[in-house]
Amino acid sequence: MYDVIVVGARCAGASLALFLGRKGVKVLLIDRFATPVPTLSTHIIGETDVYARLGILEKMENAGAPPLTRFRVDLGGTIFESDMLVTSRALGLRREILDPILLDAADACDSVTTLLQANVVSMLYRNGEVAGVRCRHPDGTFQEYLGRIVVGADGRHSMVASCVNPKKLREDDERHLAVLYAYVEEMEPLPIPAVEWYWVEDGVMICNPIDQSMHCIAIMQPKEKLRAWQKDLSHAFYQQLMSVRTLAPRLKQFRTSGPIRGAHEISSYIRHPFGKGWALVGDAGAHLHPIAGVGIDNAVCTAEILAEKLTLFLEGRNDWDSAMEEYARLRDERLIPQYEASLATLALAAKKVPDEQMLSLQMLATFPSHVKKIGMHASTVLNLMQEVEKS
Description:
By secondary structure, this protein is α+β, with helices and mostly antiparallel strands. Among the domains are: 2-43 and 94-173 and 267-346, FAD/NAD(P)-binding domain; 355-390, no CATH class. The protein has twelve helices and 21 strands. The strands form four sheets. Strands 1, 2, 8, 9, 10, 11, 19 and 20 form an eight-stranded mixed sheet that branches. A hairpin with a 5-residue loop joins strand 15 (203-209) and strand 16 (215-221). Helix 1 packs parallel to helix 4, helix 1 (11-21) runs parallel beside helix 8 (295-314) and helix 8 runs antiparallel to helix 9 (320-349). The mean pLDDT is 94.
């Protein structure tokens, strides 16, 4: 009998188990994989404080994650670049490195039991409440595990969510771009590492340095276009990169490391995150399109919130509904503005900037006096943009 059974041992589930384990909560952490493998992600980690609280930030840095302090936006060859405002620095780290660091740290907690290569096939119920899980092991045998609480941290295709059928508070797949990404070696880096954002025809391309002197490049385009690339994916991916004239000179020696991965069908949603004996965290509970670039941080930060509220309940300092309603409130305060912003960005990707507007933009960026004047009136410019959007 466990206090909490966590289904899914990637960044949301492993961090939740780690937060709970350090509070002495008896946790069973389950996943069907033998070891974490690459997964769809921008591999951008911004809120480094939470990883320091987890006690893994030094390991992440020692794994070769470069500090990213700048943000660079390229629109048709006109470039805007600045120090990041939302965080003092971000890190670029592949998920197949980050997730094992989290999993190992969780597994090292005395009160956490890790069960890998176990596939959860159904929920167990008692008096109408979730009371555990039924797993299939690699040898074909089945076993049942009981817990006071079952948490689904098992991603976009969550088995837990499919069993408990939570209400969807938000859902949208309109104008959702398909995503392809690859790890790139021998790409010439920028002098100061930056997250690079390129507005390309009908979509977006995001590039950022990651560990081992590589870059992660994600191409986001309409799914019909990316499906057509499947006939010769490597060539099409290469052609897209070389079509960006401000990026192409840095790719003279580049090569991809491993396969090109991605997803064609992507939706955004926010699900109601709890019920009788169960809760959801990470992509199982809410998924934002990767264009938002906040999936890893959201998973880990909402896991920290959930761990705090579960502990209050387990220690008898709060009843279940009150604890989970507070979790839902804090989670949604964080996610809903990001959700709306990501949809707005996706809608913007489909709009072409008129030629005359591009000419004006180039003039603004070409003349130093114009840039200085924009700086002197930046608040006015931002307010004017907001008024235009409202109208």
